[in-house]
Amino acid sequence: MESLAVKQWMDSVIKPEQIEKYYNHGKDFIDEPFIQETLLKNQQPDQTRIREIIAKSLELQRLDFDETAALLNCTDEDLWQEMYATGLQIKHKVYGRRIVFFAPLYVSNNCVNSCVYCGYRHENKETIRHQLTMPELEAEIKALVAKGHKRLIMVYGEHPSSDVHYIAETLKVAYATKLGNGEIRRVNVNAAPMSIEDLKILRDVGIGTFQVFQETYHHATYKKMHPRGLKANMGWRLYASHRAMDAGVDDVGIGALFGLADWKFEVMGLLAHTIDLEEKFGGVGPHTISFPRMQPAVNTPFAQKSPNLVDNDTFKKLVTVIRLSVPYTGMILTARETAEVRNDVINVGCTQIDADSNIGIGAYSKDKVETNSQQFMLGDQRSLDEAIRDMAKMGYITSFCTADYRCGRTGGCFMGIAKKGNIHNLCQPNAILTFKEYLLDYASEETRKEAAYLIDKEFAALPNENIKQTVQAMLERIEAGERDLFL
Amino acid sequence: MSDLQLLFNADQGQDKADIIPSLDLLLKQTYPGLQTRWSRVYGRRRWAHIYGSTEFFSLNPLRIELGPNYGLYIDNPELIPQHDIELLIDLLKSALVFM
Fold it and tell me: Which residues are CB-contacts of B74 (< 8 A; sequence separation ≥ 6)?
């Protein structure tokens, strides 16, 4: 039983008027009959139509519902090969050959919710609960900085002990912590939906992206998966990103947990979410889209027996369709997946990955895996250094760039550049600069040997002499000991 | 530059929400062709775009921190005479000091 204080807090969180204000004619943006109908009427698309849709994606235009449904329904494996190749082309066109690396940092696993598939659910007595104190958090940050990380996604359970004021304090600690040449330069937050007022508190302490995954866009499944707690209110979650945008947090991340409902429906849901954001916020959609697959968790049988689990082949397909449908948005492929899956699926257009992830609470500083304080089990246990080396072997340069949100290139400004395919003019140089820092300060000898070629290769590919001269001068300053240089 | 000073003087009491576009307009009237990007600064890091060009980004912009809450990028600062720059920054800071 929850204490009275927890119940009172729960009663104060959801503000119905901050859901209803975003409705379209009294309804949320998930029109299930329309989505089902669209999927049905676009069955068996012919080759010509698929190729026309692929061509539209290549022009960096967002697809509509019919086009996305047609791609989802494609059964021609040759066409899928074309789509995989197009996903990579789009990614290169918009984001270049760089992959942004980040680390997840689980800060608190106290939770009032009862998500059927989640190891952190309130009723799960086998999960060891903990919430980091500020000194513990500092130790975690230092452990991550020591590996070379510059970007974090900090993750919090939904509980009054980890309310917005606690989250704000953790952001301040994260930004203030230094170790040698290193520091965290961008902190993104994955937390429960909040009110506009609370999101302004996070905005004021310099949040990067505010990320809330819908889990499932299917109303009946959502209800079944979230029987109790604040998360039982689907509308409050559906409009979490809208409230963030209204609060001035103009980089938002959305996502669906694949394995809960039909995968085609979820992709359509992600598209509906994107379109609704774009319609309501002047063309600015999500900064990133995530597509985690449900993984086993401690004492959580549902995670392994759901009828909607997605196999590897389908996973690659759904990631490809998301890439083609929203060509200009960042896409996050996490270490839930195995190294083998990630090395394959990254080639259909993903832009961000994590590495050396340890999702136990307080586990980085202890440097051990603690399955009983994890939300789920990880598939990829490679160190950051190994993952960077593997990416280098595939021709990808690792980027720790955080320049955009420190230079005012946020929200509509960032999206405008991305939609025109112009961000790599700035971000590719920044990838080179941050990768140089990594090689100098953190890389193993083996990684230096295998990956250093990328600096020269990417430098040679810079679009003009002016940029080359600027980057060359900055590389020399980094060699001389300066850090955190960016365009 | 004297026009700028006049505007800053006249700005006392103006609706603060309008001040950034007003300042931007005056900057551009004073230095035609100036490319500016205004940001609201949050915390230690976040510069959130609030006004100005989203089309043009130079390699060597002038980054100006206008106190704890606002920041400005000028992508072609060479249009501003060197001796104006310090004064301009002071004027902008004073205009935004209570925001």
Answer: B34, B35, B36, B61, B62, B64, B80
